[in-house]
Amino acid sequence: MSTPPLSSPSCCPLCGGPNQCAIAAGRPPESCWCMAQRIAPAALAAVPEAQRGQVCICPSCGAISADAQQPFADPPGPAPI
Ligand SMILES: [Zn+2]
User: Fold this and answer.
1) Which backbone phi and psi does 18 adopt, to 5 degrees?
2) Ion ligand 1: residues, CB < 5 A
3) Is the model's pLDDT at 50 over the cut of 80?
4) What's the number of domains the chain is made of?
């Protein structure tokens, strides 16, 4: 078998933490956090292909990171004016 150790349906495949998935917990899918929150495409892309569509990621890994969305472009130096 080539099943990776982190294959529990309730564990995030990215960080191994609890993914808080309602489906894995036996609750209705509508009550899952992923229904109310957008999942970062980069996070989905980071999920191993074998686990994609099988295992939920956790809210913190799925969150669209502030770094990716709005990079800190302000230079640390003095203002130009
Ligand atoms: Zn995670």
Assistant:
1) -65, 130
2) 12, 14-15, 58, 61
3) yes
4) 1
